[in-house]
Amino acid sequence: MAEEPVPTEPAIRNAGPTAQLRQRLESAGALVRDDVALADLTTLRVGGPAELCATCTSTSVLVDTLRILDSARVPTLVVAGGSNLLVGDAGFAGVVVRVATDRVEFQPGFVRAEAGAVWDDVVAAAVGEGLGGLECLSGIPGSAGATPVQNVGAYGVEVASMLRRVRLLDRRSGEVRWVPPEQLGLGYRTSVLKHSDAALVLDVELETRGDGLSAPVRYRELTRTLGATEGERLPTAQVRDAVLGLRRGKGMVLDPADHDTWSAGSFFTNPVLTDGELAIVLERIASALGAVDVPQFPAERGTKLSAGWLIERAGFTRGYPGEDAPARLSTKHTLALTNRGTARARDVLDLARVVRDGVQAAFGVLLEPEPVMVASAPAR
Ligand SMILES: Cc1cc2nc3c(=O)[nH]c(=O)nc-3n(C[C@H](O)[C@H](O)[C@H](O)COP(=O)(O)OP(=O)(O)OC[C@H]3O[C@@H](n4cnc5c(N)ncnc54)[C@H](O)[C@@H]3O)c2cc1C
Description:
Blueprint: H1 19-27, E1 31-33, E2 50-56, H2 59-71, E3 76-79, E4 85-87, E5 92-99, E6 104-107, E7 110-114, H3 119-128, E8 153-154, E9 157-158, E10 163-170, E11 176-179, E12 199-207, H4 220-226, H5 236-249, E13 272-273, H6 275-289, E14 296-299, E15 302-305, H7 307-313, E16 327-329, E17 337-339, H8 345-363, E18 372-374
Parallel strand pairs: 2-5, 3-5, 4-18
Antiparallel strand pairs: 1-2, 6-7, 7-12, 8-9, 10-11, 10-12, 13-15, 14-15, 16-17
Bound molecules: flavin-adenine dinucleotide.
Flavin-adenine dinucleotide binds near residues 78, 140, 201 and 263.
Protein name: UDP-N-acetylenolpyruvoylglucosamine reductase
GO cellular component, one term: cytosol
EC number: 1.3.1.98
């Protein structure tokens, strides 16, 4: 691959999967294929071939598959919805493990979902059952099991606020155990699970509210759309519809016919600056743009700025760099890097580099990527 704009996951080079290993995976119940391209498993629709792909449709198969691969020290890449992954054009020299479990179970006060359950199906089912709490996270692509990985969030809510516990496979010891959210290091678009092969999420449990009302609505854009006051609780279905409407307007609900959604969602996280850093950046912005209102939000470790605002003000408008480019900023949202149909990973990475460097040159802020980057040796 070309020079990466950002650090990538470590590419572990090792002996490739053997015919014997393939047989063991099949005996464990995995569906094994050797003709899978990562472009077909990811929402950015880029990424070269996987050496092998083992699809696991039950939790026991998933656990056995990972135990076999880990004890044989085979490089693995866990993929569920593929909506937060940017895999290089060389593909992945190892085994892609597809999480395809899908059971969802409602209990009084909480819902339990297997890791591969489609997240938005879980939200829709909860809303359908008259249960509140999850509705602000409507429309986020991907799986239930990946939600704690980067502590998914939208419209003022993070999954951390509703997570009851998570069942993990410890990939070092092979043990399976329930873990409370306090042990997951959940923060803004991060957790101890992100950029780590130490554990696999098998199930998640999320708290629900039984009175048919949403969690308090706080996000300004959402309260405005709903005509609600901050902190108001509304029928869950009404909040879900409003969230989906807002997300569609930004290309943030997957739609195969709309290239603005061929993305990994927001490509950069919103930068969080210390007071000292903020003062310097605000000065840079003022000298570049004059007196402007800079959107700022209080964050745990400082002040959060809007990456989308910085990108736009650095001169990268929606649709940048133009119609003929294979990878462009979404025409609906500057924070999404999109594949217009023929892009390769290299095109997306080149665009990411240009945007990152442009923002840094303009305002001195280094944007960090949100998706997990995977670079690997070419598959044999
Ligand atoms: C259009 C669009 C809109 C989006 N909007 C949002 C948003 O509003 N908020 C937000 O937070 N994110 C958003 N995202 C990002 C993405 O949808 C979420 O991060 C989602 O949770 C990823 O789930 P996935 O199953 O697709 O994970 P994948 O892309 O398959 O995997 C992502 C990472 O998690 C790991 N992983 C996956 N499953 C497991 C598991 N069971 N156990 C351990 N590790 C695992 C993978 O190895 C990989 O490192 C958006 C993406 C798109 C394409």
